[in-house]
Amino acid sequence: MRADNHFTPAERRTCMRGSEDSKEVIVQLEDITRSFGDLTVLDGISLEFATDEVTAIVGPNGSGKTTLLRVVAGVLGSDGGSRRVPIETERPIGYLPQDPRFRTQFSVDETLTYYGDLLKASVDVEASMEQVGLLDVRDRRVGQLSGGMRRLLGIAQSLLGDPPVVVLDEPTSGLDPRMREHVFDIVGDIASEETTVVLSSHDLAGATRTDYVVLLDSGTVRRAGTPRELIDAGPNDSLTAAFLDSIPDGPAVQTGTRGES
Ligand SMILES: Nc1ncnc2c1ncn2[C@@H]1O[C@H](COP(=O)(O)OP(=O)(O)OP(=O)(O)O)[C@@H](O)[C@H]1O
């Protein structure tokens, strides 16, 4: 195992949170590994996520972001390591997959009511529409929504039942700059004393608005810290430079042999 891909919870608390111990850790990953066939996609990931934080997982295509988020969300098991979500609520985790599919004939309201009815938790559909700014189009059919509005609908769906852990896979992909800003505004509002948000994004400008950034490459954590810490550790004053500096060998194209050397 490489030293730079293993952040124990204690180390991460030390190196990332300093003395902000009022925040409550509600997801802990320790030494998580996950392979598909002979392809090692997650290679010893230890991270923890606390309330009132937005964490951005960034990394090249194929670096394992979606796989990591699926493990965090509990929709994919790991091969090794442990995942702890020490909270007890009716709906502990809300998850926006990378490519959510909704029935095009349903309205926004009907879609959220449908998903809300599937949950055991009590659900306030109106509040979730309001949270993402979709109240004005509540009667519009999904098939008539713009791509950005559909993404907001996906975020609203993930918020139903007020889960304390909200996992969003690329919530800003394909969105124009104004809509990306809007999504990061929403995400900042969601993170609260009770809630943590974990998202993946290729939008490094947006990632600078989050609390913590994890630079993932080839299934390992290359760097992690506040945006400021990562920028200061990089070659110049940008997260893009820090990102490129953290993957000096270029983007990973995984072929199934990595991790076997
Ligand atoms: N279900 C699966 N079966 C086989 N291989 C998979 C599966 N899911 C992911 N992979 C492989 O795992 C690697 C990491 O994929 P993943 O989607 O986690 O990366 P990513 O960082 O989210 O990529 P992107 O930024 O392009 O969305 C890729 O090589 C992918 O082909």
UniProtKB/TrEMBL annotation:
Keywords, in A-Z order: ATP-binding, Nucleotide-binding
Origin superkingdom: Archaea
InterPro entries per UniProt: AAA+_ATPase (IPR003593), ABC_transporter-like_ATP-bd (IPR003439), ABC_transporter-like_CS (IPR017871), P-loop_NTPase (IPR027417)
Stretches assigned to the ABC transporter domain: 27-243
GO molecular function: ATP binding
Classification via Pfam families: ABC_tran (PF00005)
Alphabetized Gene3D superfamilies for the sequence: P-loop containing nucleotide triphosphate hydrolases
PANTHER family: ABC TRANSPORT SYSTEM ATP-BINDING PROTEIN, ATP-BINDING CASSETTE, SUB-FAMILY H, MEMBER 1
Protein name, entry field: ABC transporter ATP-binding protein
Source organism of the structure: Halogeometricum luteum
